[in-house]
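ugh ok so i messed up the first submission bc i forgot one of the chains. this is the corrected input, ALL of the components this time, i swear. 337 residues overall. if the numbers dont match what u have on ur side tell me asap before i send this to the collaborators (the ones from the other lab, u know who)
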Amino acid sequence: MSVRSSSTILKPKGGAGTVPNWTSYCFSLAAENSFDDISNKVVADFGCGCGTLGAAAALLGAEQVIGIDIDSQSLGIASMNAENLELDIDFVQCDISNLGWRGQIVDTVVMNPPFGTRKKGADIDFLFVALKVASEAVYSLHKTSTRDHVKRAALRDLNASSAEVLCELRFDVPQLYKFHKKKEVDIAVDLWRFVPKRSRGENINVGVRCPLD
Amino acid sequence: MRLLTHNILSSNIKGVTNGFPLGIEVEKVVEKQVEINHDFLRNIFPKIDWKAFSDASKIMGYVELPEEAPEPSVLDSDLDFLRKFHHALLELHLEEGALVCPQTGRKFPVNKGIPNMLLHEDEV
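and heres the new structure output, hopefully the right one now
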């Protein structure tokens, strides 16, 4: 399934971070129509930023959402957003690569990971952790240009039993961060659904750097 | 931070082998009511580390939970238990305080309900 929208629909409305509201909408369509990964489940939002994806999951009926991010300012905004929407979301400030996490209580991980423009492979590092934490499914966004690489990494190295592109999205990213070189850029992004292989031990201590190139 | 989250988090300091459960220092607990979902409680019950959960709830000021995990069949019939389970798991929030690494004693501060698990350079 491939969804391309014209750029007029793509402009993010307010909010912060680089996840336009309609991306959350697409997530919700994908999750609810095809798979039973969100309602009544425990959902973790990795690199939650201002909490858009976690909020979408909560609005879709996730029983409990836990948002994790490294940045206190984003978490402050995420907390306020959740409160304004009257959603129950727990937030944890943590570096994903150093996550101390027990077992597989979390059913589904949703994430819009950093794409790896500043730190190469950052999105794969996130996927590495997500596939260890989730017991049912991981929904994640990665640049379309890295599609083959992501699929290979997930299936061969990261213990995914399946890796499927649900839809392809295009959006404009305005110049938000100092490391963004252009005023605005139009990029194509895949929404993936990964399923982890059944596993393993009780404690997951992700202190090791993901062993991929 | 709810006790559900506390039941998942563990100490992530380098070299720590026994980082779960984190100790809790309470400065402020807030109660926020949420609607009870019996199916969710039945599904999550087998995944909860009961001892860690019941100890934590006592520290948070709630003493109604049994020490030992009851038989799963209790979840089908005992509404009173379900209510207590729900309350302790999802309605008690540690707003201010700290989580404590059980092995090193290192404190992770909790402010406005958000635990800060960021490590210092020598802990990574």
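quick check: The beta strands of chain A are 42-46, 64-69, 89-93, 99-102, 108-111, 137-143, 160-174, 184-196, 203-206. that seems consistent at least. The two ends of chain A are 30 Å apart (CA to CA).
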